[in-house]
Automatic annotation (TrEMBL):
It comes from Mycolicibacterium confluentis. It catalyses: dibenzothiophene 5-oxide + FMNH2 + O2 = dibenzothiophene 5,5-dioxide + FMN + H2O + H(+); dibenzothiophene + FMNH2 + O2 = dibenzothiophene 5-oxide + FMN + H2O + H(+); dibenzothiophene + 2 FMNH2 + 2 O2 = dibenzothiophene 5,5-dioxide + 2 FMN + 2 H2O + 2 H(+). GO terms for molecular function: 3-methylbutanoyl-CoA dehydrogenase activity; flavin adenine dinucleotide binding; monooxygenase activity. This is Dibenzothiophene monooxygenase. Its main location: cytoplasm. Keywords: Flavoprotein, FMN, Monooxygenase, Nucleotide-binding, Oxidoreductase. InterPro entries: Acyl-CoA_DH_C, Acyl-CoA_Oxase/DH_mid-dom, Acyl-CoA_Oxase/DH_mid-dom_sf, AcylCo_DH-like_C, AcylCoA_DH/ox_N, AcylCoA_DH/ox_N_sf, AcylCoA_DH/oxidase_NM_dom_sf. The keyword Ligase does not apply. Residues 237-373 form the Acyl-CoA dehydrogenase C-terminal domain.
Length: 398
């Protein structure tokens, strides 16, 4: 048994197709991204676009009614959307990893049930798994369980069709992954997400009050088997693509603003800001760094396809190689996007700081999401492995 339905690599035209789909959705989102960010409302209409476009079902194997795409296509879609709307890109990125838990934690017999239902309903999967907030407990109740507790930072749960939940089983030294539909009795969405950026990512808290969990709702145990734990590097690779997309979007917007400026600085001897050597130098530096971030991210998108395709043959050493490689991509994209989103103001001038311009959206989004987990610990993973061969303990962050 392969333990994976993603046994092939992308066909030559697969990226071209899904890139085009994502670009169309991104263009629709871009039209009012700033106004929607300011309104800070639940992104219902935006998520409908993900469903209608096919992006929500891209990663579901074709035999179950999905788009039959590979991981690199899904990750590229996240990047493309992040150029226009990083909040919606975040929801999509998390969705891919959440519904892939059908495979990572579930037995093969469960795949048809959950993937088919997801494809038919064009479900979006939110999550309630935040590992630094482990206050969810499953208590045995007949053949099933009762779920109780509070979980913060539950991205996409309040807007998703179903939520992936990870909770400790009372009296047992294990954590189980289960699926809970949005409207199940006892699930309370607190709508308390109010952050500097990523405002439409639906990342508020969820409280579970004596929620009934049937045996069939449980996917399986969250353990440390090498293949199943690829989910965490997958999440981190989604972050890298998200950050790269934000950097790319900031550069595009900065170019528009620079070309739209009148004249040149009074001490310059050129006729327009776009011909000022200092302006050109900043763009050149930021473009080069973004290109480097793109190269390492594309490399690990492809390597992740290959690792996933190996299924049960993935070894602990394989998993460590993927972890370290993706950690490198996470470091580079984090620092590149933060620098780009900050320094584009240097070349767009004081007028670009006006609220209605919206250049701040890129900085607010990248500054907010890069706080998800400390990038210094990614540097530690990479440096320790290089010097001593050490590999960090497997967690939902490493």
């Amino acid at each position: 048994m392969t333990r994976t339905p993603w046994t092939t690599l992308p066909a030559p035209d697969e990226h071209l197709h899904w890139d085009g789909v994502a670009a169309e959705v991104g263009a629709a989102l871009e039209r009012d991204a700033l106004a929607r960010d300011r309104a800070n409302l639940q992104p219902d209409a935006e998520l409908k676009l993900l469903k209608e476009s096919g992006l929500a079902t891209l990663l579901i194997p074709a035999q179950y009614g999905g788009g039959g795409g590979q991981w690199s296509s899904a990750l590229r879609a996240v990047r493309i959307l992040a150029r226009s709307d990083a909040s919606i890109a975040q929801i999509l990125s998390y969705h891919y990893c959440n519904h892939a838990s059908i495979v990572f934690f579930g037995a093969g017999a469960q795949w048809e049930r959950w993937f088919t239902a997801s494809a038919e309903g064009r479900w979006l999967w939110g999550d309630s798994v935040n590992p630094v907030d482990p206050d969810l407990e499953l208590t045995a109740d007949g053949t099933g369980y009762r779920l109780n507790g509070l979980k913060r930072f539950s991205t996409g749960a309040s807007t998703g069709d179903v939520t992936l939940v990870m909770a400790a089983e009372q009296g047992a030294d294990r954590v189980l992954a289960a699926v809970v539909e949005h409207d199940r009795a006892g699930v309370v969405f607190l709508d308390d997400w109010d952050a500097l950026g990523q405002r439409l990512s639906a990342s508020g808290s969820v409280r579970f009050d004596d929620v009934a969990i049937a045996a069939g709702d449980v996917l399986g145990e969250v353990a440390d088997e090498p293949y199943s734990t690829l989910v965490t590097p997958g999440v981190q690779l989604g972050f890298a693509n998200l950050y790269l997309g934000i950097a790319e979007g900031a550069l595009v917007r900065a170019r528009e603003l620079t070309l739209g400026r009148r004249g040149a600085w009074l001490l310059s001897d050129v006729e327009h800001y776009s011909r000022d050597p200092f302006v050109q130098r900043v763009f050149g530096e930021l473009l080069a760094r973004t290109a480097a971030a793109e190269a390492i991210t594309d490399r690990w998108n492809a390597e992740f396809d290959r690792a996933i395709a190996r299924g049960a043959d993935v070894t602990a050493a394989d998993r460590a190689d993927v972890e370290i490689g993706i950690a490198k991509a996470k470091i580079v994209t984090t620092e590149t996007a933060l620098e780009v989103a900050h320094r584009v103001f240097e070349v767009t001038g004081s007028s670009s700081a006006r609220t209605e311009v919206g250049l701040d959206l890129f900085w607010r989004n990248i500054r907010t999401h890069t706080l998800h987990d400390p990038v210094d610990y990614k540097k530690l993973e990479v440096g320790a492995n290089y010097l001593t061969g050490d590999v960090q303990p497997i967690t939902l962050y490493t």
